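Attaching the record inline, Q. Sequence:
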Amino acid sequence: MRLVILDNYDLASEWAAKYICNRIIQFKPGQDRYFTLGLPTGSTPLGCYKKLIEYHKNGDLSFKYVKTFNMDEYVGLPRNHPESYHSYMWNNFFKHIDIDPNNAHILDGNAADLQAECDAFEKKIKEAGGIDLFVGGIGPDGHIAFNEPGSSLVSRTRLKTLAMDTILASAKYFDGDLSKVPTMALTVGVGTVMDAREVMLMVFQVMILITGAHKAFALYKAIEEGVNHMWTVSAFQQHPRTIFVCDEDATLELRVKTVKYFKGLMHVHNKLVDPLYSMKEGN
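Structure, as predicted:
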């Protein structure tokens, strides 16, 4: 497990974007060899997505031979609703890059048979050869995707009832009206993400408006305490290739010696993103 600590949100977002860029380019994707990327939504990855768009527009990165699978989607929210994760992904990322829409997979929260939709999503991941790199964020209570406290650590893509804390936290996106907030969602399982060949989790304190201190506590639970289904992100201690990327403030609950240890490895971590590879001819 790696813990990459950067000074602030912008630097952490840039490091994460560089890492994704380099992993795609080093993979050498092509018509018969697609790179498969798992993606999150929310406020945390926005800076990372902006940098990836920048690399694409500069000609350094192409998503022509990339397939993506998103973590989750609300149930019952129209696809074109501004707060649906379909809208989020297309407005903040997909429409700015050269990905084939047929290769951008997002769960359908309006499917007639929701369990069949979840099963089909798992099948599509398997048919794509599995996820090469799953990128995610974590919630203040340590959940990943909508795998909230108490979720099975071997769970698969499924229908999930949202916790009241999650509904309350989401109300700000729905004019503060709890009656407008979806109460159910489709989500990949912890086991689904654990199956990825590599996982990168972004933990940025500065993006949390009210419950920021709890995000630092979630990182503490993820890094320094044991595996616990009440903190589902802790399962990734057992993944052979997990990278936590965080800003300085997100480490406030970690022991000083933990922070010093991982900061002492930054010269190794920076070699993963420096130099930044390019798809331009000759680079």
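Residues 4 and 269 are 7 Å apart (CA to CA). The beta strands are 2-6, 35-39, 66-70, 72-74, 104-105, 133-137, 158-161, 184-187, 199-203, 242-247.

More tomorrow.
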